[in-house]
Structure formats: C-alpha cells, structure tokens
Amino acid sequence: MKIVALVVGATGIAGRGISQELLACGAEVHGLSRKADGLVSGVRHVGADLLDPKTLARSLGGLKPTHVYITTWSRQATEAENVEVNSRMVRNLLAALSAARSVQHVALVTGLKHYLGPFEAYVKAGTPPPTPLREEQPRLPLPNFYYAQEDEVYAAARRDGFTWSVHRPHTIIGKAIGNAMNMGTTLAAYASICKEVGRPFAFPGSAAQWNGLSDMTDTRILGKQLVWASTNDLAKNEAYNIVNGDIFRWSWMWPRLAAWFGVEWKGFAADGAALEKQMANDAPVWKRMAEKFGLVEPDLWRVASPWHSDLDLGRPIEVMTDMALSRKRGFLAYQGTEESFHDLLAALRTDRVIP
Ligand SMILES: NC(=O)c1ccc[n+]([C@@H]2O[C@H](COP(=O)([O-])OP(=O)(O)OC[C@H]3O[C@@H](n4cnc5c(N)ncnc54)[C@H](OP(=O)(O)O)[C@@H]3O)[C@@H](O)[C@H]2O)c1
Fold this sequence. Notes:
about 350 residues, alpha/beta, 2 domains, seven-stranded parallel β-sheet, two-stranded parallel sheet, 13 strands
C-alpha cells in the first residue's frame, strides 16, 4: 500500500522523528508547520497555520493524504486555554481534510500528562497516580488538552470513517531546535556551559527522580510505533503507551552523561537549584560560545527549555511506563536510552549545535 503521509507539526521533536521513519518506509511525506525551518530532508513542506482555517484549506489544496500523524501543540498560559487552542487546531485540520475523504487513519501523539495531569496540576501531592502507568488507567477528572484532542479525533473518525490510534510517549529524546520541550538538547547545552565555565553538572530534580526508576521515548521508537499502528489492522482504534523499553535511574544516567562531556557532576541535593535558576544568566555565555566554537544557534533559549526539564526531573514520584498493549499485539521494537542520548549528543556535535 502506498502511504501518502501528512505529518502535522513536522518540524517539532516528535514530527521530525516520525518523518524520518515514514521516509525510511518509502512513504510520500508531506509536513505541515508554519515555518519550514527544521523540516527533515525529503519531506514536502505544507506551510499553514492550524488556527487559520482559510489559509489551512488553501495550503492543503489538492493534497489527499491516506495517513495523518498529528504531532503538534501550542503552549498557552493556562490549561483551559490549552484545551481551547489545541483542540481547535485538530478540529480545523480534520475539517479541512474531510471533503476529500482520502484519510484512512489518523495517529495522534499525546503523552503521559494523560495520567499525570496537565502542567498546571502536574503530579501535585495528594493525587499521585499508581506507577507503572498503564494504558487502562482512566482519564483524570481535570481539564486536559490531550483529552480534548482525542475527542476531536474520535468525532471526526465517526464522521469520516477513518481508523485512529493514540500514542503516549514519556519525555521525548531527539533532535529539534527552537521547539517547546527538549530535555536532550537542554542537558546538552547545560553540560557544555558547565564545561566551558568550570561549573559542576548538577542534577536539578527531586530525590524521587534521582533514586527512582524512569524511562524515556526516543523519537525513532515513537515513529516506529506510529507506522506500526497506522498500517496494521490489529493495532487500530486503540491508545498506546510508547517508551524505549529499558528502565534506568537518573543516579546511573547522570554520571554517564557527565562522562560523555568530561565534566564534573553533582547528584541530588535537597538544596539543589532548578535548571531555570542555574541557567538564568547563561544566554550571554552561550552567545560567546557560539562565536568561539562556530555553533549554528547563538540563542540559548532555542536550544534549551529548562522549564520543561525541571518539571520532568522535579516530579515527586518515579515515573515508569508499561507498554503491555502494543507488545501483546506484536510491536516489539526496543531502544536503549543511553544510546539515545549518545546518538543525539553525537549528532548535535556533528551539526555544530554544541561544541
Ligand atoms: N517534547 C517532549 O518531550 C514530549 C514528551 C511527551 C509528550 N509530548 C507531546 O507530543 C506532542 C507533540 O509535541 P512536540 O514536543 O513534538 O512539539 P514541538 O517540538 O514543540 O513541535 C510543535 C510543532 O507544531 C508546529 N505548530 C505549532 N503551532 C502550529 C500552528 N498554529 N499551525 C501549524 N503548525 C504549528 C510547530 O511548527 P511551527 O512553529 O513552525 O508552526 C512544530 O512543527 C504534544 O502533545 C506534546 O505534549 C512531548
């Protein structure tokens, strides 16, 4: 079957990974975003704003995608606004594609906030969810833009007769510049600055995260699960967790990351500072480093998103993810997380994102 794929949010961290997997499968890949910067080579750009239905319809023109991969979000000040804006993006997209009736499957990427709550109520004390997080756990009684996006997909699937899948990654690791949340590039920039100025690479998070078990989601395994779910009848109309398949403790990973950079490290400390605080005055340092080492992005805040790494590393519980449902149905891909970091760090160095 020839896949004509539309990756929505194609320049983001998830969208880039999925684009790469689709190209590797021989799909014709169209990538929607407002700007083309960061699009994977081989992807045909569809420049459109999902919040502007008129230009969206015009930009989609005669495109008749068979498979749609929704990997987009737009961060708002409150979860109520997240719900309104992010569900509207999905609604506008699926309405614009409806008339052509070409879509066979829609895959939606959400995440573990499905279980942990939206950022404004993220794993707050009093309601910690049981871990490992399991696919059968019900929605929380809180507003959540993931639920609103899912509901848009379910409604359009009933209207237009396509199949769907939902994919819930943990923290995503992969290459993207200028996107909202990227722990891999954040830690890479932070470690590079520590090395440059002679500061220790100090873990910014909680004791539970330092000592507890964790997992992560490489964009490559996320892309593989999306391709699997969208092309296998057995997999359709289901919501899946997706993580690498190994588990680790940050007390194990942190010194290994420090060793990659050749920088001194410090583990969890009760009085340790969040990355946002540690990096607050680092933008001029990064700009000087960009000149000195010929780096491609002199704006630190397009490489690093410390607010997000602080939220994930600061959670008061360990967070592990169970992948029973897709494994039982035959999705058996595995990715080691230390290799995910090493592959990303090597690519960032080769591409002159870090020295
Ligand atoms: N990053 C993580 O660690 C992580 C972890 C778990 C779950 N997730 C979830 O994964 C999903 C995808 O997130 P992501 O991190 O991959 O996002 P991202 O890297 O921030 O990328 C967002 C993409 O959407 C596009 N976009 C944003 N607003 C748009 C608009 N109005 N019209 C058209 N395109 C627009 C952006 O391009 P332009 O700005 O050029 O338009 C970009 O291509 C989200 O639901 C997120 O919560 C992320």
